Amino acid sequence: MKMCIVQTTCKDIQEAKTIAKILLDKKLAACIQISSIESLYIWNDELCEDKEKLLSIKTKKKNFKKIQREIKENHSYDLPEIISIDIENASKEYKNFIGENTK
């Protein structure tokens, strides 16, 4: 089973929890961590600084497109970050946890 971490950022904890709960309810993710971060980026040729929530979504790699669709449908940003990072190594027990808790 191939696994990955999908990352996205949200404007606030409410939006982050909404997206997390949707993904968990649909069994598209086994675990989602929400962290507080500060982001600096260029948008419309301007330097922006925002406090955001980072979601680290642990899942099977095959779920990426479905997760991407759910994030786009439930996100307030015009261009949400949606990236996938392959998990090369994980304990057998953690692989089993992801496998048992996702479609």
UniProtKB/TrEMBL annotation:
The record's section on InterPro entries has: Ion_tolerance_CutA, N-reg_PII-like_a/b, N-reg_PII/ATP_PRibTrfase_C
Q: Which GO terms describe its biological process?
A: response to metal ion
Annotated signal peptide: none
> What is the superkingdom listed in this entry's lineage?
Bacteria
Q: By its UniProt entry, which Gene3D superfamilies does this protein fall under? A: 3.30.70.120
What the entry lists under Pfam families is as follows: CutA1
| An annotated Gene Ontology molecular function | copper ion binding
Q: Where does the record place a coiled coil?
A: none
The Swiss-Prot or TrEMBL record describes its family as follows: Belongs to the CutA family.
Q: What is this protein called?
A: CutA1 divalent ion tolerance protein
**Organism from which the protein derives:** Arcobacter nitrofigilis (strain ATCC 33309 / DSM 7299 / CCUG 15893 / LMG 7604 / NCTC 12251 / CI) (Campylobacter nitrofigilis)
